[in-house]
Design a protein that fits this description.
With 421 residues, the chain is α/β, with parallel strands linked by helices. Strands 1, 2, 3, 4, 5, 6, 7, 8 and 9 form a nine-stranded mixed beta sheet that branches. Strand 6 and strand 7 form a beta hairpin.
Length: 421
């Protein structure tokens, strides 16, 4: 096991770009993410390395992420990734058979150590990442890993496999994503000891089926039929569950993702009719749903405007340069959000250091610390204000509508909400 100093460094450094790129994070079924036992999180994989960031740096739990083994080929990369709590798992295409076998054997040894320490391991059951709202065919590795840990521990390890759906409202180049994580009922492998002993394949298939059921129930799938309508409904659900103040929201998601995924023509027609009305009255669903506005961030932004607004302007330009660089240099869209976060960390640290140096030169005593912190946080608040501006502008139009027109919109929205309840 290597020293994890880079994890602790990045955990703090990521607060700046993640505070801009992520609007809200919902964690539901938190009681299923069991404590005081080893946990194998079996998650969807829509957004490459960014998915690991959600669990490792935002969930509040000690999580190690399994990722493709080929990126560990260089000694420096191997050390850095391991020190960030990222471990290799080799697929057939990641290395030659001998390297893959020896690499996976070492990883299994390390996983067994981690599980004995009651740590959590994140595995992506789809095996590959792609930034779209669709579930790819599941691999059998999750169940196989449970079997391996059971056998190594002589069936004494109380490992819980937790099927987990990870959703994003959008992918690169969009900022201000809402992230939604749903933990489903765990599969305690000790309860399946006899099944594992007698029918390993049956156990692996059962685990895969349970994970698939969880994904079908809680992962927003818009690829295929009614794509535009489902995308709109996803945003509507986010608006319905929006809370202005907290960044992390636990166990308060109210609407059924499974029902959105099962959309039929009648449901889609309701959505299209509502969209048409919104367009007619030039308002947003967030206005009709009475979504709150983040007035606290607006207040902080205004109070600190004298020094936070210039920082925001520079930061905004840096993000634009970031997007241009990512688009030009990374043709594979799978990694663009992850690379954007990585570059964002460097940019944010550079900007923060620059602000600290300038304020230290011109301000007496320790005032530079206060101005640096408030200036950087105020700049993040400006990002939030600009993200919420379309809602606030449309709110003025919505307030000016006739009561009868408002009722039409509210009734149409209520019909959609009822279909999701």
């Amino acid at each position: 096991m290597v020293n994890e100093w880079m994890f602790h460094f990045f955990r703090n450094a990521l607060r700046l770009p993640v505070g801009i790129m992520v609007r809200k994070v919902h964690f539901d079924g938190v009681e299923n993410f069991t404590k005081d036992v080893p946990v194998l999180i079996a998650s969807t994989h829509p957004n490459s390395f960014f998915d690991g960031v959600v669990f490792e740096h935002i969930s509040g739990r000690r999580v190690y992420t399994l990722t493709r083994g080929d990126v560990f080929a260089k000694p420096v990369a191997n050390y850095m990734l391991r020190s960030m709590r990222i471990l290799p798992i080799f697929r057939a295409r990641d290395a030659d058979p001998k390297t893959a076998r020896s690499g996976n054997a070492r990883t299994m040894d390390e996983l067994f150590e981690r599980f004995n320490l009651k740590h959590c391991i994140l595995i992506f059951t789809e095996g590959v990442a792609y930034p779209e709202k669709a579930v790819r065919p599941l691999k059998k590795g999750t169940g196989a890993m449970g079997i391996e840990m059971a056998k190594r521990s002589n069936f004494e390890m109380d490992l819980h496999i937790v099927p987990t759906a990870l959703n994003y409202t959008s992918f690169w180049p969009h900022l201000f994503k809402t992230v939604h994580v749903t933990y489903h009922k765990p599969i305690p492998i000790k309860e399946y000891t006899e099944m594992i002993k007698n029918d390993e394949r049956g156990f692996a298939n059962m685990v895969t089926d349970r994970v698939q059921e969880a994904f079908d129930a809680s992962f927003v799938t818009t690829k295929g039929q009614f794509t535009e309508e489902k995308e709109f409904v996803h945003e509507l659900m986010v608006n319905e569950n929006y809370e202005a103040i907290p960044f992390k929201i636990k166990d308060r998601w109210k609407l059924s993702i499974a029902k959105a995924n099962q959309m039929n023509e009648d449901f889609a027609a309701k959505v299209r009719s509502y969209q048409k009305s919104l367009s007619k009255y030039e308002v947003l669903d967030s206005n009709v749903g009475n979504r709150s506005f983040d007035f606290v961030s607006a207040l902080v932004a205004l109070v600190t405007a004298g020094f936070s607004l210039p920082i925001f302007a520079i930061w905004w330009l840096l993000f634009k340069m970031n997007d241009r660089l990512v688009k030009r240099s990374f043709k594979n869209i799978v990694f663009r959000d992850a690379v954007k976060v990585g570059i964002g960390v460097v940019q944010a640290l550079g900007l923060g250091i620059g602000v600290a140096i300038l304020t230290a030169i011109f301000l007496p005593s320790y005032w530079w610390i206060l101005f640096t912190i408030s200036g950087m946080y105020g700049a993040i608040c400006w990002f939030r204000v600009f993200e919420g501006w379309p809602h606030l502008w449309s709110e003025l139009k919505y307030v000016g509508l006739k009561d009868d027109d408002k009722k039409i919109l509210v009734d149409q929205r209520t019909a959609i909400i009822n279909s999701l309840s």
